[in-house]
Design brief:
It is a single chain. The chain is an alpha/beta fold. Helices cover 44% and strands 20% of the residues. It is built from 19 helices and 14 strands. α6 runs antiparallel to α7 and α9 packs across α10.
Length: 447
C-alpha cells in the first residue's frame, strides 16, 4: 500500500497526522519531538507530519535497512534506542544533524500490512525506557487505525478507552514520572479524535464523583420578613468541596457541558429536600433549577416524596428558555402538588421580565443588581417599585436578594418589599447555623 492510497482513505489526513504527533509529544514528557513516517514505494518511509526538531524530516525519505523504524516494522513491536551513537540500527549521521541522542519508534500496521511508524526523539541520552514502550505499545492499534483510517474512529475510541490497563514489568521498571498506560491512552485517544475532549472527560469524572455522593453540601440562607424580621424560608444553595475550587455556577455549567446538568441539579435538589423535615414549620425551602430540570418529571417525583407545599421552585436560567408551552405545563404540574414557582434574578433583563409574564409566579425575586446601591440610585428604586406594584396586582410576593447594608434595607422597606435575603440579614450556613438564627428572632427584627 503506497502513500497516495493511504492519504486518500483518510477524510482529513493532514489534520489527523498533525494531531497525532502533537499528542505524542505531550504524552511522553521526555520526548522533544515526534514524527509520522508513512510507508512508500520500495524500502523507504516518507516523513509526512512532525513536531519539534523532527519537522526537518517532513517530505524526505529514510531507508528501512538502516533505521530504527525498519526494526520496528520487521518485529511489529515498539523499539527504543538509548544512545544513537552506539546503536547500529539508526542513521547516525541524520540523528547527529538533528541533535537527536535517543529515540523510540512505534510500528503502524493496517490489515496486517505495515504502513509506517510513529517516531519520538529526544536530545537527551537514555530518555526512553520500558515504561514508554508500554505506553506506546498500548496505543499502537489506535494510532495505526487513525493513520490508516480503516474503521470508524468513534468505535475505536470506545474500544480502547474501555480496555483493561496494562501494568509495568514485574520488576517495577518504568520511566519514573511517565503517565500510566490507561490514563495516557484515554487522554491521547480523546485529544486526537476531538481536541479538548479529554477536558470533557475530566469534567465528567468530577461531576460523576459528586453524583456518587462525594463533595456536595447544602448551605441554607435565611429569607426574612422585612416587616418583623421573622425567618419565613431558606434558599438551598449548593457548595462543592472537590477540586477545582469553584463556585456553583461553574460546576453546574460544567455539568451541563458534558450532558449531566439535569442530573446534578436533581441531585442537589434531593440533597436539599433531605434537610426539609428538620426545618420548623412554617419555614419553607426554595430550590434552584434550570429550564430542563424545571420541566423534568423526575423533579415532580422528588417533590412527591417530600412535602411540596413547603417548597418553592426557582427558575434560574432565563435566556435558555425556548419552549414556553412546556414551561407553563411544568408550572401547572408543580402547583398541582402544592409547590410554588419563583422567577429568580427578575429585572436582570428582558428575558426575566418575559418569564414573569409567561409564568405568573407566586414569588418574584429581585436581581441583586437592583438591590446593590438602591439607596443611591433613583433608577433602581423606580424599577424595583414597579415590580412591587406588579406583584401586588398579580398576587406575587417580592423578595429582594443581595441586601448588604442597613441603607439598602431601609429603602426596600419603604418601597413595600415584603421579604429579603442577603449577607446583612444572614449568610448561607449549615442547618445548625440556621437553628441558631431561629433561636434569636429578635436580632433580625431590630435591623
Amino acid at each position: 500500500m503506497g502513500l497516495r492510497e493511504i492519504i486518500a482513505d483518510a477524510s482529513d489526513p493532514a489534520t489527523v497526522l498533525d494531531r497525532v504527533v502533537a499528542e505524542a509529544v505531550a504524552l511522553v514528557p521526555s520526548a522533544d519531538s515526534a514524527a509520522i513516517a508513512l510507508y512508500g514505494d520500495g524500502e523507504a518511509l516518507c516523513f509526512s507530519a512532525a513536531a519539534g526538531s523532527l519537522d526537518a524530516f517532513v517530505g524526505t525519505e529514510v531507508a528501512l535497512d538502516r533505521s530504527l523504524a525498519g526494526v520496528a516494522l520487521r518485529t511489529g513491536a515498539v523499539q527504543h534506542c538509548t544512545d544513537v551513537t552506539h546503536d547500529p540500527h539508526v542513521d547516525r549521521a541524520t540523528c547527529h544533524a538533528l541533535g537527536i541522542s535517543s529515540m523510540i519508534c512505534m510500528p503502524l500496521r493496517r490489515r496486517n500490512e505495515p504502513i509506517g511508524v510513529l517516531n519520538l526523539a529526544s536530545r537527551r541520552r537514555g530518555a526512553f525506557g520500558p515504561g514508554d514502550e508500554a505506553v506506546l505499545g498500548d496505543l499502537t492499534d489506535f494510532v495505526s487505525t487513525v493513520v490508516g483510517a480503516a474503521i470508524d474512529l468513534a468505535s475505536v475510541t470506545s474500544r480502547l478507552l474501555g480496555a483493561e490497563p496494562r501494568v509495568d514489568a514485574p520488576d517495577g521498571s518504568g520511566t519514573g514520572g511517565a503517565p500510566t498506560c490507561s490514563g495516557a491512552r484515554g487522554m491521547f485517544v480523546a485529544n486526537v479524535v476531538r481536541p479538548g475532549a479529554a477536558l470533557d472527560s475530566v469534567a465528567r469524572e468530577r461531576v460523576e464523583s459528586v453524583l456518587s455522593g462525594t463533595g456536595l453540601s447544602i448551605a441554607l440562607q435565611p429569607i426574612v420578613s422585612l416587616e418583623d424580621g421573622a425567618v419565613v424560608g431558606v434558599e438551598a444553595l449548593s457548595r462543592f468541596a472537590l477540586e477545582p475550587s469553584a463556585g456553583p455556577d461553574r460546576w453546574f455549567a460544567e455539568a451541563a457541558a458534558v450532558g449531566l446538568g439535569t442530573q446534578l441539579e436533581l441531585f442537589a435538589v434531593d440533597s436539599a429536600l433531605d434537610l426539609l423535615p428538620r426545618l420548623p414549620r412554617p419555614v419553607s425551602m426554595a430550590v434552584n433549577v434550570g429550564p430542563d430540570t424545571f420541566c423534568s418529571p423526575d423533579l415532580l417525583d422528588l417533590l412527591e416524596r417530600s412535602t411540596p407545599d413547603r417548597v418553592t421552585v426557582e427558575l434560574t436560567e432565563h435566556v435558555g428558555v425556548e419552549d414556553f408551552p412546556a414551561l407553563r405545563r411544568a408550572c401547572q404540574d408543580l402547583r398541582s402538588l402544592g409547590a410554588q414557582v419563583s422567577i429568580d434574578d427578575t429585572g436582570a433583563g428582558f428575558a426575566s421580565l418575559s418569564l414573569v409574564l409567561q409564568v405568573a409566579p407566586e414569588v418574584i425575586k429581585l436581581d441583586r443588581e437592583l438591590t446593590v446601591g438602591i439607596d443611591l440610585d433613583p433608577v433602581r428604586r423606580a424599577l424595583a417599585g414597579a415590580l412591587v406594584g406588579f406583584g401586588a396586582e398579580t398576587g406575587a410576593a417580592v423578595v429582594a436578594e443581595g441586601i448588604e447594608t442597613a441603607a439598602e434595607l431601609a429603602v426596600l422597606r419603604d418601597l413595600g418589599i415584603a421579604y429579603g435575603q442577603g449577607y446583612y440579614l444572614g449568610r448561607p450556613g449549615t442547618l445548625e447555623d440556621l437553628e441558631a438564627v431561629l433561636a434569636t428572632p429578635g436580632e433580625l427584627a431590630h435591623r
